[in-house]
């Protein structure tokens, strides 16, 4: 969670594992959208001597659908290359790394960015430097400066960054996957192991990820290449998701190197948080990762009748009686996750993309950044937050738990009254449970934890 180790096969291939995707109107430049795709989950900062890096053999991509068919109209593709300066040394660095071209940095990584629009492919940047991983006070004594140097401004005014960042997603994995225990309500659980509530525990605390962040003009992403001014404009909403792909064939050579050939095959994808993690059943997870959003009608049954909604009344007897009695397909979840929210459901808001059921983050780019953001996003009246896109600090676990528990059913079925617990259910975490704060400017995710001070979480 959000999409860390979410399917059997991709859990064995962390370099290609999409962990989170974010899309929001940039608060520091409201004429742009920021897109962030994270990979390589649950990185311990003390990961030497072979520190984490993007895969040279992986095609990473961020996709945008602007004509509502669940297929990419615009894609940004990222390919990475590693340069080893001294193959006879085991060291990642032989001294302090004080710049991106430091001769002390033995394993430097660079990348290219290609914009794909229809049949047109255009390389918009080449040989861009990633920052090194954050090793410690001797090896990376001024990491913030190194990271700032790795924010590249492209010719068309866009910004791009690719490298290690602090994990910004907060979740109590240890409790949730222990028979859906939620520590703030654990004394109400079916299993008599707890007698009182407890605060949540942030499992990814002090861990890192690798991020690809892109800030582009809104007019580069919309169908008619203009910036919408009205929230009700049907062209104001874009769909966003990320993928990772590998070559179809791999041959392991006797000298330990791999040879790859054939077309790229998608092995990971992510749109809305938690979908493959807790909605798609075990036997379909690997299949889901291989499919385009346009084919998500094949998985809609699991959104319409989510297993977690059935488990909550069982695991917490007597707490969710109204949810237990509700047997209709969940039209609210189908809208939130697969079609967007039509006009008239939430006053003054819509991010509807039509009848094609597709798992994408849907962002209405006409909604300005909030002056006082609420981490619960739309359900708390903050239309600039999830599920209108997703900001780095949004509490998507609580939002989706409350939606699954029934707080959003009255939006489509006025006969339903949510259980009292549905409006307060949470795993007990907020951004305050992160050690490393977010940034107010691009790339927004915080400076990664270093191995010297944070050997483990």
From TrEMBL:
The protein's name in its UniProt record: DUF4331 domain-containing protein
> What species is this protein from?
Kitasatospora acidiphila
Highest classification ranks of the organism: Bacteria, Bacillati, Actinomycetota, Actinomycetes, Kitasatosporales
